[in-house]
DNA sequence: TTTACATTGTGTCACTATAACGCAATGAAT
DNA sequence: ATTCATTGCGTTATAGTGACACAATGTAAA
């Protein structure tokens, strides 16, 4: 079995290629049908789900590791990516290994570097849902989107990592206009508002929202309106990349 | 030389005790004489200065590592401590080693785990300056406070780490009332204002500052006033730990 | 003892940002 | 032609912010 050979090698010799004790986990957010979603992998050995993750090459920048992992799972380059926390509890990596799974690929427990402690660096990514082609990795049976409000059971502390990521995203959303990374090229104001409401988990006033967004100066209203809606057609907007980057940097206003 | 033996062992066998490729660096802030200061160590082998740092024990929580390092350098327990960023550039750890220094302790270059790549987890700490007893470690000749406006030349990317820490502190200061950790039990309003001004690097209006601080609800005015000042004596304040913790959690106000 | 003076405590005022809400315009469906 | 959900723009009351005035305080100088 060529597949098992490859996997076995990874379990036994992976640390020659990667940094031991260190991993990267990515919370990949996408927005689709008025719902904020997260991309998850179904593990082969116990059927539960996991955040896309991986290891850091011996001579690789950690941000590059995260980009590499994202590229593999989504097919996308140049993703909005943000390091948000390091999870360093020595007990976060379980030592309870599925023995049968190990037997299947022909290794003994405690023989693999992968069942030692792992400190993981958490990143979150904001991607355009429509552009993503989810693809599972070696040790996964599936790669799918889940609504953040209906997450399946996850391995290790991945639920906790997700929650921390969401909290960071919410914080960031209030001080930098990062939400746009989740949308396509053009979008209507109600769509943008739904996005914000979904991320923040609460409803916002339609009219105040519009005013604030316009006030950021990063939106450009197009002449085109949305077609085929059974009511007044909303305008499309796109965002001004130049002003966007300015707004990103300016972001918060410190005290006076 | 018993000292060299110990140091040599650390260089050669340290990775048996600690996680390889991983370190913790701490930016320890203190406030003294209207000046924000950082605690630095003077390296023995090239005389430049470094942030207090260390390694992570194989079975230790990373936050505990940081606490342990802080305890050793400052003598303090239960310090306000915040993880703020991971520095993961593969080129951040220099491979240019002082050969003479290595000879002195009797090891060859490339023989030590310590000259490989290190990914470092940055923490910043806020301490009561008056309670700290700075003490250098094995490989350091001195441990001293420096004004953040007059920092000496530092090794590796420690200047960069410091700047990132300061930026994070400023951000945090605006949304959580963390500054108090830098002061003693009681303080006057002008003292608190100076602290804020020093951290933020700008002057604030005295009267508006007072209004805002009172409004946080975490201050308690004492009946005692400061003695021996050649003008109207300011009141002392202390802070209400209960309300403080509430304010820490509440912190930022999300959108509406 | 009186006066000077730097600094503190409290208050005011104009301006802005924000939340809450009104209303006419739109355009497909009836 | 009418209905109606939804959009775009506007109004108002309120709270927060920055800028500044002035009296009170307490040591030091006269």
Description:
- 2 copies of one chain form a homodimer.
- Chain A is α+β, with helices and mostly antiparallel strands and 256 residues long.
- Chain A has 2 domains: 2-173, Nucleoside Triphosphate Pyrophosphohydrolase (Alpha-Beta Complex), CATH 3.90.79.10; 186-250, Arc Repressor Mutant, subunit A (Orthogonal Bundle), CATH 1.10.10.
- Chain A is built from 7 helices and 10 strands.
- In chain A, strands 1, 2, 3, 4, 5, 6 and 7 form a 7-stranded mixed sheet that branches. Chain A has a 3-stranded antiparallel sheet with strand order 8-10-9.
- Chain A starts with a helix and ends in a 6-residue tail after the last helix.
- The A-B interface holds A 19-22, 56, 58-63, 65, 83, 85-86, 88-90, 117, 119, 121, 170-171, 173-174, 196, 200, 202, 204-205, 208, 252, 254-256 and B 19-22, 56, 58-63, 65, 83, 85-86, 88-90, 117, 119, 121, 170-171, 173-174, 196, 200, 202, 204-205, 208, 252, 254-256.
- The structure holds a DNA duplex (30 and 30 nucleotides).
